[in-house]
Specification:
393 residues, alpha/beta, Arc Repressor Mutant, subunit A, Rossmann fold, 3 domains, 9-stranded mixed β-sheet, 7-stranded mixed β-sheet, PG_1098_Fer
Length: 393
Amino acid sequence: MDLKLLNSEIQEFINSSIDKTITKLALQKNPFPVMEWVSILNQIEAKTKSKEKLPHWFATKNIIYPSKISVEQTSSEKTASYKSEIVSGESLIDLTGGFGVDDFYFAKKINKVTHCEINPELSNIVKHNFEQLNVKNIRCLSGDSLEILSQLKAEYDWIYIDPSRRSDAKGKVFMLKDCLPNVPEHLDFLFNSSDRILIKTAPLLDISAGLSELKNVKSIHIIALENEVKELLWELHKNYFGKTILKTINIVKEKRDTFEFVFNENSENPEYGLPANYLYEPNSAIMKSGGFDEIGIFYKLKKLHKHSHLYTNSEIIAFPGRIFEIDNTIEYHKKEMKIFLEGKQFNITTRNFPETVDSIRKKWKIKEGGKQYCFFTTDENDNKIVLICKKIK
């Protein structure tokens, strides 16, 4: 960590360069010979990326940023805030501390937080930033976190861990055993230090695969921001042997759409039906959960097809996803396409349909955008249909 970055003139230059094109700035002569130009450029780029994602860091003076990749990979403040609502108690140890965003929010709920980071440079940066952020209940330790945990010989109310995928695992199916630390291998060791473990994984991890590797999983939280799944949170309790609850959360601005159900315990069959007045499309967190039947049954909606994951009924109801009013339903035939869609402008979505959005646009010369939406899908009778809609929510 180079404290010369905190020079008032350098900080002023960084702040005045937010949102500027880095490639253009890189061609300029370094106005601060005491500091490497590439380090200053990295601060500009990383801080720019933190503007929306990490508003507390962005607004605080004398924050030092690691590489832009570290900022890209860190939790956003919104997802970190959600995580803090899961934990409670006196103490928590984070075995993969990173940039410390999650710990900043854990420290609002937990009296003593320990931040472990194997990279000493990053550990020092985080310690410095916590001082600027006026956080006094987080201890920063650098080194192998499993060794630290073993040496401390302490018990914690929670262990938090965000394992990173090993670089030599590229191209393979994403499994927790392919990550560092290897959580499945060390699970019994971790339970010696805490009865509760919270694991963050990337959305790429298959839920069934994760459950096959782990044990004592009480719940899985699927977190989406603005309808894009960002992370999975696996809540493990040492002596829990019951059913796993899947909780889906889509955070849109300051609002949350939530839905939860018991994993693999749907005793009812969904009802199927042809398109009615309104179309319902679940948000991405629900789509990731695989609760395709559960969502339709809970909201008393009819499903268009077993594999379409679109729902319909004759009334508008509150729903965790997008809602459309169906203006017209046409069969996917040349005649109908020429009359209703060819050469016009629509937003296109495909669900359980044999052609891609790009091929449909090219084939029928459909322009992108506009206020109308088209869903190319399959109905309960296996007919290829197009739903022409306008968005309500």
